[in-house]
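Good morning C.,

I know you're traveling, so I'll keep this short. The sequence:
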Amino acid sequence: MSGPQDASHCGNCTDCKYDCCFSNQHCGDSHIFGILAHDELHSLMDNKRQIHFRPGETILKQNTPLTHLVCIKDGLAKVVSEGPKGKNVILQIIKSNSIFTGGGAIVDDFRHFTLAAITDIDCCFIDTQKLYTLLTRNSTFAIELLKHSNNQHLKIMSTLINLTNKYMPGRVADTLLYLKNNIFETNPFDFILSKQELADMSGMTKESFIRSLKEFEDSGLIHHTRNTIEILKESELLEISKNG
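The tokens, ready to paste straight into the viewer:
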């Protein structure tokens, strides 16, 4: 497109630099941008960058300057805390129509987590300085973005508490229930994460995770093939999760 146009005419046009970044503008975090007036939306989306990432590629890197927030238009990404000696923990899975900063927005402007693609990812990068300008001018937008940020932090904190306080069976149960109910929302669900990624979500070694998964299958709680996992007895997995 050769010039600006009213945002109401943008719809889902992926070529228009003034659209709101999301493939479905009525899902996920897209409502946050819906708060903005047309001129505010235009200002925020001006000069954004639309980028495609392949599975395994890094989208945001921990400990780098926070210059942009990222809007995941389509695909799945993992939020990773990179520890010493290659010890990583996957804290959250980010789905389509989600906003992620990497942590540190407004505080120290550094990314505290790495965001990496699990599947093919289509996303937009938006300049944080433009974001900060809008936060000072639009209190409703600021409050909604603060709510979103706090919710993400609470989810990450909950994950860390569970990884710290639960034994391995409870952590594996949490991982399987989270994938079924919060990410894929179907049963069975596709086995698109590697065993190492599942172990990183559970805060354990790959060998320990595989052993626990085998024990769950031998007990008739789950069935898994090379491509899928099916939860057969969710109530029992919930009990294992509850008891840790």
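Safe travels,
E.
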